Amino acid sequence: MLNRVFTNFLLLIFLQFPLLAQNLDNFPVEWLPTSTGQAKGVQIIEHNYYTIGYNEQHEQAAWVAYELTKQELFKAANRSNDFRSDHKVDTYSADLSDYKGSGYDRGHLAPAADMSFNSDAMSESFYLSNMSPQIAEFNRGIWKNLEEQFRVWAYDLKNMYIITGPILEDGLPTIGSNQVSVPKYYYKLALHVDEKNNTYEGICFIIPNKGSSTPLKEYIVTIDALEEMTGMNFFSAVADSIEDKFEGNVNYSYWPFYSERKKNYSTKKASKDHSTKNNIVLDGRCHGKTKSGSRCKRKTNDSSGYCWQHQDQAKQ
User: Which of 29, 50, 127, 252 is an S-S bond match for 86, by CB 3.0 to 4.6 Å?
Assistant: First the structure.
């Protein structure tokens, strides 16, 4: 009798306070942002390949979290473009009509290119709960460049834990009948854990929602500064002695930018020193061929002259 009562008690507790299970994104649940500040009262939704904290007031995610690995950078699925409402949002997410004619892009928070390792992940990235109204020059310019830079780091470091989102505040302009807020700023941060040496290194950016030619490095802030701005706490389960170091400081040498890497090649004067064994000029752009037969647009400083996606072509 006592065992049955105890079992029923545990079941009641579980139903009232459901636990988050680990999904396929491999982002530790205990590292998700706290539901404070702009994330207060968010609905935490676990899709298979990323997790979001959905803010109903602003009709978009306060944050999106996932792990990105080197293996996931090898493209296996084409862009699906199947934009749609997220059926997992209890109060209904934004819909296509909110963006139609608004003048804003449906800007990804978890980028489609980060989810190109299989068709299910790619399709999930097109839920409108993973979108935010972005100015075209921002979405297709500096924000796209930042996403690409994060993929370069994920390739170099083998894996990273990424959290992305808008800066949400009262009084923002809105679009559509669902009143989707238009943020003034977006943030993107990453944490790399070197388990062998037990070291943690983080980097964080806050960028205004507008076109910009300013170098990405100029938008680096500490994670502490982002926490103060948003009221959220990131990676709170990490020991304070470790968290304080990587959230209060940025180890710039750990995060090299393409624009600052030593360039020993030239687009105008090719020489033997500037060519690979296949006589490919190392001009900083991938020499891989896409399915359409055109040259890949990705940047690379790999000695083969190819980006991660086209390494198989380098061996031919």
Answer: 127
**pTM greater than 0.90 (yes/no):** no
Question: Comparing C-alpha atoms, which of 37, 247, 219 is closest to residue 146?
Answer: 219
Strand partners, 289: 295
Q: What is the DSSP letter of 139?
A: I
* Helix intervals (H) in 126-280: 136-137, 143-157, 223-230, 240-248
Instruction: Report the alpha-carbon angle 255-74-279, nearest 5.
Output: 80
Among all residues, which ones are annotated catalytic? 108
Place of tokens 């996606």: 309
SS3 84: strand
d(CA 121, CA 76): 10
Q: How far apart are CA 166 and CA 108, in angstroms?
A: 11
How far is 200 from 243, CA to CA, in rounded Å?
Answer: 8
Question: Per residue in 100-111, pLDDT tens?
Answer: 999 999 999 999
